[in-house]
Amino acid sequence: MKLTLKQTRAIDFLEDDVTNDLLFGGGAGGGKSAFGCYWQIKRRLKYPGTRGLIGRAVLKTLKDTTLNTFFQIASLQGLKSNYHYIYNAQRGIITFPSTESEIILKDLATYPSDPNFDELGSLEITDAFVDETNQISKKAWDITKSRIRYKLDDYGLIPKMMGSCNPAKNWVYGDFYKPYKDGSLPGNRQFIQALLSDNPHISKHYRDNLLQLDKNSLERLLHGNWEYDDDPAALMTFNKIMDVFTNTFVLPGEKYITADIARFGSDNTVIGVWSGLRLIRIVTIAKNKVTEAADKIKELCNTYSVPISNVIVDDDGVGGGVVDILGCEGFVNNSSPLPNKETKEPENYNHLKSQCYFKMAELVNKNELFIEDHTFRDIIIQELEQVKQHNMDKDGKKQIIPKDKVKELLGRSPDYSDMIMMRMWFELITRHNFFTF
């Protein structure tokens, strides 16, 4: 196997004493999967008795795709099946008799029966390659990485984990591509953009096939465009999301405060101060007590002259404690949507949270919302891009993608978009002429 220039750069990072995480990402045909398999073979032959892992979101897909690539690369290296290496399909293990090393094939999908990946708990590996990393959760990546400790000291190695993927607006974008683009990647993490044009060994017909794809797929897979996202399920376009930070013409108005309270101290408490539909200040408190969150909201009420009747806090979990202390409005995510003003009947949403997110998307797409505080701009953009309709092809009530799924994609809770979404409650109350006492 002749390495491309990009693959040569990648192998340098994977053999240094600094890099722990490498994402080899970009368009299709850049040689990502082939390189990952090559690296795993090289490590198993170079370091006797070690154990690697090749993972993917679905084991069947791994065996149908990545494993076939492994066989091709092994052949290019002059390795013969059942002699230089032995594949045990039942156990999902590839062994190398000459070095007594092995590669374990693993399913890294998130299953409700094993949300914490306890199945990986007793695993000990030397390194790992995850193909199509964008298809697994950040937690799956982190848990797999935590298992890298086997025989490292024997060879003076450091933990090494490599992922491959095509452009995706989820946690790999936030952890790798965005910091790479901004020049803020940590020293132990690297990103290499691999495109079809970087691979001189690919068939000349491959590019012609890519040119037949739809516009969204063409941008992602041929041009490696990480910013392009034309998902029909998205409630807001990327351009309109960007506009919310420049819509200075949105007029100020009545003051409000919305707050998403950290659940059991695990997430951030995010508080927003509004003047009409202008988000003028965002405050984040990490792992705070209920009383601290309540005190901060009281302080902001005094500073910006916001009456308690214009404050809303999520009433799920510990947020209910803040509602009790302040005597403010409580936002119950799964409560029934607000009724239609004319018919007095509930609107066609599965719950209030979906109704408010659809309303927020409507205002964003009409350029009627302005985020004046840019402190958390990049985080907000990422979260708003994940606001999508769930099961859009099915009949029934309109709903957004569940929060747990969004957390998997982002690798964190969408606290900022939830805080913004809650501002819509006041808009819906006014629109529906609905009052609380």
TrEMBL record:
Pfam families: Terminase_3. InterPro entries: P-loop_NTPase, Terminase_L_N. Residues 25-217 form the Phage terminase large subunit N-terminal domain. It comes from the Bacteria. This is Terminase-like family protein.
